[in-house]
Amino acid sequence: MPLQTAALRKAARYHEKTIVAKLMMITTARASLLPNLAVFLVEQLCLITQNLDFSTFIEKTVSNAHRCILAMIGLSIGATLGTSVEPGFGTVIGAIGGELCYK
């Protein structure tokens, strides 16, 4: 698990949970960017194939973008809270919980 490993390495390097939690917020935001954008692009391709009218297409695109952004924010906040409790395992549990809130 890359997030768990990153949190444990940061904890060994900085020895302060608040600093590690702050750094993990940035790390998890970067790590979640590509997978969430991939999901967004697939959802957009599905919308294109449905031949929707323009206003419905825009409405669903905004909804998909909103959900994508909230998933990344939720993952980052969850990982930060989990790291502040227990770096490593807490990071993973918090990240999973944070992302599931918006799926």
Task: Give a written overview of the molecule.
The chain is an all-alpha fold and 103 residues long. It has one domain. The protein has four helices and no strands. The longest helix is centred in the first third of the chain and has 33 residues. The model has no long low-confidence stretch (mean pLDDT 91).
Tell me the β content. under 5%
Average pLDDT rating: 91
Fraction of residues in H or I helices: over 70%
Major β-sheet profile: none
The whole-angstrom Rg is 16 Å
Through-space gap between termini:
21 Å
How many distinct beta strands?
A: 0
Poorly predicted sequence stretches spanning 5 or more consecutive residues: none
Q: How many domain regions?
A: 1
Shape: elongated
The SSE order reads HHHH
Count of helical stretches: 4
Strand pairing plus helix content: what structural class? mainly alpha
